[in-house]
Amino acid sequence: MSEIKKIGVFTSGGDAPGMNACIRAVVRTGIFLGKEVVGIYQGYQGMIDKKFINMDARSVRNIIQLGGTVLKTARCAEFRTPEGRATAYKNLKEEGIDALVAIGGDGTFTGAELLSREYDIPIIGIPGTIDNDLYGSDFTLGYDTATNTVLEAIDKIRDTAASHDRLFFIEVMGRDSGCIALHAGVAGGAEAILLPEKETAIDDLILKLEEGALSNKSSSIVIIAEGEKNGGAYNVAKRVKERFNFYDIKVTILGHLQRGGTPSSFDRVLACRLGYASVKALVAGESRKMVGLRGNLIQLTDIVESINNHSYKLEEDLLEMSAILSI
Ligand code: F6P
C-alpha cells in the first residue's frame, strides 16, 4: 500500500454533538503527522458535488465546544447507486484524496464500506450518532449529550406533571435503538419505558399506571422511543386514554432538539480520542475499521461487523430495575 498523503474527513447522516471536536482532532492529528487534510462538505453529497476545502490547524479553532457539524451533513440517495459512487471516487482521486475518515452512523458506514470495497480506498469510521447503536463502541459520539438533553426535558416536564397531576407520554429519538429512551428513562425516574427492541402490551402499561394511581401517585411519566412498536407516543396515549381515567393525559415529542447543543465533556473527550485514533490507524495501514471505545480502551472493529452485529449493549435488565424503582 502506498503512503497516505491526503486525508479527506466528512460527517454524514444525523448530526451529533461532538462531531466538531472530532473534526478538529482528525485535522490536527493529520497535520501533526505530516498529512494534508481536506474537509468534505455535506458528506457523500459533497463528494459527488466536489465540495472540498483544505483544512489547516487554525481552520478548526473554536469549534470544540460547538454542536452540529461545521462540515455540514446530508443523507445522500445518489451515493447509494454505483454511478453516484463512481462520480464520488473520480472526484476524490482528482482532488488527490487517498484516504478517508467517515464520521457518522450505520448509514454512513454502509456507504464507506461500499466505497472502500469497490475502489480500494482506505477508510476508517468514527461512530457519530446520538443513537448509540453501533457494535464495537460502548458509546457513540453525541449519545451522552443527547441523553442529558432528554433528561433535562424530563425533569422540566415532571415539574408541570406533578403540579397538574398529569400523565405525560414523552417521545424521544431512536427509530431502531432504545438507548436514549432507556437511559434517560431510568435517570428521570420514568414510570414506564417503551423501546423499539421490546414489545410492550398496552394492557401491561395500563396495569402499571393503575397500580401507581391506586398507591397515591399523583402524576406519571412514560418514555417512548420513536420506533417503539405500538406506533409512537400519540398512538400509545390514545389507546391508554380510552381505558385509563386517573389523570389528565399529555404528549410531548422532543424531536430534533435532542440532536443539538454543546457537547458534554464526555462527548468532547471521546471525540478527541476517536479522531486522533482514526488518523493513527490510517497511517498505520488500517482500513475498513471503526475506531471505538470499549471498556475505556480505544479498539478497532471491522466496519462490517460494527454495522451488522446487533448483539450490542442495550441493557434490557435495566427495564426490570426501573419498573421496581418506580413503584
Ligand atoms: O440517527 C439519528 C437519528 O436522530 C434517529 O434517532 C432519528 O430517528 C433520525 O436520526 C431522524 O433523522 P432525520 O433528522 O433525518 O429526520
From TrEMBL:
<dbReference type="InterPro" id="IPR012828">
    <property type="entry name" value="PFKA_ATP_prok"/>
</dbReference>
<dbReference type="GO" id="GO:0061621">
    <property type="term" value="P:canonical glycolysis"/>
</dbReference>
<dbReference type="GO" id="GO:0042802">
    <property type="term" value="F:identical protein binding"/>
</dbReference>
<feature type="binding site">
    <location>
        <begin position="105"/>
        <end position="108"/>
    </location>
    <ligand>
        <name>ATP</name>
    </ligand>
</feature>
<feature type="binding site" description="in other chain">
    <location>
        <begin position="129"/>
        <end position="131"/>
    </location>
    <ligand>
        <name>substrate</name>
    </ligand>
</feature>
<keyword id="KW-0021">Allosteric enzyme</keyword>
<dbReference type="InterPro" id="IPR035966">
    <property type="entry name" value="PKF_sf"/>
</dbReference>
<feature type="binding site" description="in other chain">
    <location>
        <begin position="217"/>
        <end position="219"/>
    </location>
    <ligand>
        <name>ADP</name>
    </ligand>
</feature>
<feature type="binding site">
    <location>
        <position position="166"/>
    </location>
    <ligand>
        <name>substrate</name>
    </ligand>
</feature>
<comment type="similarity">
    <text>Belongs to the phosphofructokinase type A (PFKA) family. ATP-dependent PFK group I subfamily. Prokaryotic clade 'B1' sub-subfamily.</text>
</comment>
<dbReference type="GO" id="GO:0003872">
    <property type="term" value="F:6-phosphofructokinase activity"/>
</dbReference>
<feature type="domain" description="Phosphofructokinase">
    <location>
        <begin position="6"/>
        <end position="282"/>
    </location>
</feature>
<keyword id="KW-0963">Cytoplasm</keyword>
<dbReference type="InterPro" id="IPR015912">
    <property type="entry name" value="Phosphofructokinase_CS"/>
</dbReference>
<feature type="binding site" description="in other chain">
    <location>
        <begin position="173"/>
        <end position="175"/>
    </location>
    <ligand>
        <name>substrate</name>
    </ligand>
</feature>
<feature type="binding site">
    <location>
        <position position="106"/>
    </location>
    <ligand>
        <name>Mg(2+)</name>
    </ligand>
</feature>
<dbReference type="GO" id="GO:0005524">
    <property type="term" value="F:ATP binding"/>
</dbReference>
<dbReference type="GO" id="GO:0048029">
    <property type="term" value="F:monosaccharide binding"/>
</dbReference>
<dbReference type="GO" id="GO:0006002">
    <property type="term" value="P:fructose 6-phosphate metabolic process"/>
</dbReference>
<feature type="binding site">
    <location>
        <begin position="24"/>
        <end position="28"/>
    </location>
    <ligand>
        <name>ADP</name>
    </ligand>
</feature>
<keyword id="KW-0324">Glycolysis</keyword>
<keyword id="KW-0418">Kinase</keyword>
<feature type="binding site" description="in other chain">
    <location>
        <position position="226"/>
    </location>
    <ligand>
        <name>substrate</name>
    </ligand>
</feature>
<feature type="binding site">
    <location>
        <position position="14"/>
    </location>
    <ligand>
        <name>ATP</name>
    </ligand>
</feature>
<feature type="binding site" description="in other chain">
    <location>
        <position position="158"/>
    </location>
    <ligand>
        <name>ADP</name>
    </ligand>
</feature>
<keyword id="KW-0479">Metal-binding</keyword>
<dbReference type="GO" id="GO:0070095">
    <property type="term" value="F:fructose-6-phosphate binding"/>
</dbReference>
<keyword id="KW-0067">ATP-binding</keyword>
<dbReference type="GO" id="GO:0005945">
    <property type="term" value="C:6-phosphofructokinase complex"/>
</dbReference>
<protein>
    <recommendedName>
        <fullName>ATP-dependent 6-phosphofructokinase</fullName>
        <ecNumber>2.7.1.11</ecNumber>
    </recommendedName>
</protein>
<dbReference type="GO" id="GO:0016208">
    <property type="term" value="F:AMP binding"/>
</dbReference>
<comment type="pathway">
    <text>Carbohydrate degradation; glycolysis; D-glyceraldehyde 3-phosphate and glycerone phosphate from D-glucose: step 3/4.</text>
</comment>
<keyword id="KW-0460">Magnesium</keyword>
<feature type="active site" description="Proton acceptor">
    <location>
        <position position="131"/>
    </location>
</feature>
<comment type="subunit">
    <text>Homotetramer.</text>
</comment>
<comment type="function">
    <text>Catalyzes the phosphorylation of D-fructose 6-phosphate to fructose 1,6-bisphosphate by ATP, the first committing step of glycolysis.</text>
</comment>
<dbReference type="InterPro" id="IPR022953">
    <property type="entry name" value="ATP_PFK"/>
</dbReference>
<dbReference type="InterPro" id="IPR012003">
    <property type="entry name" value="ATP_PFK_prok-type"/>
</dbReference>
<feature type="binding site">
    <location>
        <begin position="75"/>
        <end position="76"/>
    </location>
    <ligand>
        <name>ATP</name>
    </ligand>
</feature>
<dbReference type="Pfam" id="PF00365">
    <property type="entry name" value="PFK"/>
</dbReference>
<keyword id="KW-0808">Transferase</keyword>
<dbReference type="InterPro" id="IPR000023">
    <property type="entry name" value="Phosphofructokinase_dom"/>
</dbReference>
